[in-house]
Specification:
This is Asparagine synthetase B. The chain has helices spanning 9-21, 43-52, 61-72, 103-111, 120-124, 149-152, 156-171, 177-193, 203-213, 222-225, 289-294, 374-384, and strands at 26-30, 36-38, 79-83, 89-92, 116-118, 133-136, 197-201, 277-280, 301-303, 312-313, 322-327, 332-340, 343-348. It has 395 residues and is α/β, with parallel strands linked by helices.
């Protein structure tokens, strides 16, 4: 899985998932040649690699033992992690959304990793209990319709999406979308606390935490929910209820395309497209296999990309949350991970790792043109993570 010898990093994850689905175990060799996978030497697997265009090498048992010995050496920052079972994957996404509206569904389809879609009804009816891994589509859990009001309130798609959200909330017994979305966020919180793995990108990251922090507080203006917000609602925010963020200030104007001070999009005047990169942190593979797993890549320097929530203000991240990717010069974190109860969460800023500034109505990304994308590899690291035999994190 290094840069030189793998033609299609993304589909390699799909082959690994396919192998796990055959009830076969895989060893993930962390930090060995870009985080390589050691698969059983079976003709069917070789054929699958050839069909999908995935580069592979056949090695003898003695060569495999030599590699594993090298990886296990105390002098090497490497580790072999056993992947045991293909995780059952859910994508939280509105009905009718196209796969290319979301980077995760795109890369799952490209890598040929099966998933099911769920939305509010399934979540509220405890449907998440069937899944090991949940991705949150670019959702607004605050009930402010993505804060597209300022620019798009007169467009047909905005009017229709607002109408659909209100109809769904009413069907489920709620008078406000914000109340319904809060209950969805609370169910997702309980899923993670109970042992689930949640992965979120773009606005699903900060809007999820904001919704949790504003439980019992009306932060929505009349154009969103029909009545005024609570006076002085900023002072009623409870940061102890969030997963990742603290001490943030909410954006109170309904016409500003922003939720809060968590997002770095408007604080990036010193960063241009040509200089926009983030660095992956290095962890101890033997002592901290979880963040090491999530950071496996063939480069430590990854191209940045924008989104409604592009990156996270470093000073507003809780101290018990791991920063795994950052642009240090601008004080921003791009890729973070934490533990909540018995479960785990990863937040990844930005919309699409291969579409720098994705706008409403833009053409979809063709992943055939980006089969070795480091930014998309980070997503797939998270997909395979629940398959790993867990070891307790030391730091």
């Amino acid at each position: 899985m290094d840069a030189e010898s793998q033609k299609n990093h993304l589909k390699a994850y799909g082959v690994t998932y396919w192998t796990l689905n055959k009830q076969l175990k895989v060893k993930w060799l962390l930090n060995y040649r870009g985080g390589s996978f050691l698969l059983p030497d079976i003709a069917e697997i070789q054929q699958e690699c050839q069909i999908r265009g995935v580069s592979f090498e056949v090695i003898s048992n003695s060569e495999a033992e030599s590699i594993l010995e090298h990886v296990s050496s105390p002098s090497q920052n490497m580790e072999a992690v056993v992947l045991e079972k293909a995780p059952k994957i859910a994508v939280y996404t509105p009905k009718g959304k196209l796969p290319w509206d979301d980077a995760v569904t795109m890369v799952l389809q490209y890598a040929e990793i099966p998933y099911e879609t769920v939305y509010d009804e399934e979540v509220l009816n405890d449907g998440l209990l069937l899944f090991d891994w949940l991705h949150l589509h670019h959702e607004d859990f605050t009930g402010q319709y993505g804060k597209f009001y300022g620019t798009y309130r007169a467009t047909s798609w905005y009017i229709q999406e607002k109408k659909d959200a209100e109809a769904l909330a009413s069907k489920l017994g709620y008078s406000k979308v914000s109340q319904e979305k809060l209950d969805v966020a609370l169910k997702i919180r309980d899923y993670v606390v109970g042992g689930g793995f949640m992965f979120a990108m773009c606005s699903a990251t900060d809007s999820f935490d904001i919704a949790l922090s504003a439980e019992g507080v009306d932060i929505c203006e009349p154009m969103f929910d029909g009545d005024g917000s609570d006076p002085g609602y900023q002072n009623k925010i409870d940061y102890s209820k969030t997963f990742a963020f603290r001490d943030f200030t909410l954006e109170q104007s309904p016409t500003v395309y922003e939720f809060s001070s968590i997002d770095m999009t408007r604080k990036r005047s010193m960063i241009s497209r040509t200089t926009d990169y983030f660095t992956l942190m290095e962890f101890s593979a033997k002592w901290d296999p979880i963040p090491t797993m999530l950071c496996q890549n063939h480069t430590a320097l990854v191209k940045g990309f924008m989104g409604q929530t592009t990156a996270f203000t470093r000073d507003e991240i809780k101290s018990n949350v791991l920063i795994m990717g950052e642009n240090k010069s601008n004080g921003e974190a791009k890729y973070i991970h934490g533990i909540k109860g018995k479960g785990f969460f990863t937040f990844y800023g930005g919309h699409d790792p291969e579409d720098y500034q994705h706008r409403v109505g833009d053409a979809k990304t063709e992943l055939d043109l980006h089969p070795t994308s480091p930014g998309y590899r980070l997503i797939l690291n998270n997909v395979l993570f629940p398959a790993a035999r867990k070891k307790k994190q030391k730091t």
